[in-house]
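Good morning N.,

You mentioned wanting to compare the apo and holo forms, so I went ahead and generated the holo version with acetyl coenzyme *A. This is what I fed in:
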Amino acid sequence: MLKKIEISEVKNPQEMPYALLLLADPSKEVIDKYLKKCLVFTACSKNKIPCGVVALYPHNNKTIEIKNIAVATDHQNQGISSKLIDFSIQQAKKLGYEYIEIGTGNSSLGQLYLYQKHGFRIKRILTDFFVLNYDEPIIENGLVCKDMLILVKKP
Ligand code: ACO
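and this is what came out, ligand included:
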């Protein structure tokens, strides 16, 4: 388990950690569309280089979404995304949102485990979301990623 990480907001667009964001979302075009409205936070360990990112997208005054969360491959399985999820839930509460939600693909089995472990419950399914919005097929865990599952939690 990693001892200490610092989470801070990315305010300068030049400092957007695209290499991390692209781990969670294969399309830079799609990322750039939602990023304009997002609050973006990075997790850094002692060398100050971002090893994790979370982008929070306000839908309206009730709901904020974890639109993108990713951890550098050499820092995975050390609890960093768990810290970013807990931080996001705290931010949602602090900012007065009633709900925090997160969407993931039907094939993202580990992520579905992770989000449910943090108290998110499956609320909606956007059938064929990935087929309609991405040029290339996405395959994970031997499954074609077709549908987006939306999980929701009260912060
Ligand atoms: N498969 C199985 N279990 C997993 C996976 C996985 N892919 N990822 C995390 N877990 C489990 C861990 O085993 C751990 O379980 P435990 O607490 O019972 O021991 C728990 O989830 C927490 O793990 P962390 O160490 O906090 O997770 P990590 O920092 O490694 O980050 C993440 C997980 C963000 C999914 C990382 O693997 C990653 O960046 N993947 C690529 C990008 C991605 O898929 N992002 C999510 C896309 S959906 C979206 O962005 C809204």
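Strands lie at 6-9, 39-44, 50-58, 63-71, 99-105, 121-126, 139-140, 143-144, 148-153.

Happy to go through it together on a call whenever suits you.

Best,
F.
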